[in-house]
UniProtKB/TrEMBL annotation:
Residues 72-91 bind DNA. This is HTH tetR-type domain-containing protein. Pfam families: TetR_N. InterPro entries: Homeodomain-like_sf, HTH-type_TetR-like_transc_reg, HTH_TetR. Keywords: DNA-binding, Transcription, Transcription regulation. GO terms for molecular function: DNA-binding transcription factor activity; transcription cis-regulatory region binding. The keyword DNA-binding applies. Residues 49-109 form the HTH tetR-type domain. The keyword DNA-binding applies.
Amino acid sequence: MPSQFGYRFNPKVLETTMGDVAIDVANLDAGDDRPVPDVLPKKPFDGALSRREELLGLAARLFAERGYQEVSLIDIGSAAGMAGPSLYHHFSSKIDVLVGVLRRAAEWIELDLHSALTTHDDPVRVLRQLVADHVDLALNHWDLFRVYQNESIQLPPDEHSWITGSHKAFMERWIQLTRTARPDYTETQARVRVFSALCIINDLAGSAHMRVHPAFRVRLEHTAFGCIGVTPDPARPKV
C-alpha cells in the first residue's frame, strides 16, 4: 500500500489511481513459465576482501533473520568463528555494524541509479534498469534488503536522517523519470504508481516460496512495470 511511505494523498486521487494500477496489473499477459536467463549476481559484501566485509555480510544475515534487537556482537563474532571482543578491532559498537550495513544498502541503490542514468538516455530504459536492479537486490540479497527496509529506525538521529534522505531522493528520482516517460500522469498519479511498484517488490520479494520460482524475477519486474505504466523490454522473456 503506497501509504506505507508516509505521504498524504488526496483520498479521491489515491482511490482512482490505485484502481487504474489494479486494472493495468490485472491485464498483464500471463505468458509462460520460462526460466529467466542466468544473471551474474552482484556481491554487497565480499568476505574475501577483508574481515570487516565478512562481518558485515554475516551481520546483515543475522539482523534479517532475528531482528537487530535480538542479535549481539557475540552472535556476530560466533558466526564468524571469532571471540566477541575481537569485533571491536573492526567496529566500535553494534550500532556501528548496523550503520555499515545500511550505508552499504543505500550506497548500492545510489550506484544503481547512477548506472541507469549514465547508461541510458531514454527515461523508459532508465526505469526498466532501475526496476531490474531493485528486484535483483530484493531477490538475490534479501537479507540486506530486509535490514534496509526494517531496521533504519534503530539508527542514531544523524545516521537515520542520512538514510531516510537517501531513500527519499531515490524515490523522487523514480517519480521524476516516470513523469518524463508518462507525461499524461499528474505528479500525484506518478507518485502513487511508483509507490505501488515499490510496495509490490518489497512485499512479494519477502516470500521465500516465490523467490525460488524460476520465472518469478521476470514476473515481479513486469508487475512493477505495470504499476508504473511502462512497457517491458521486448528482448526480455514474457511474464
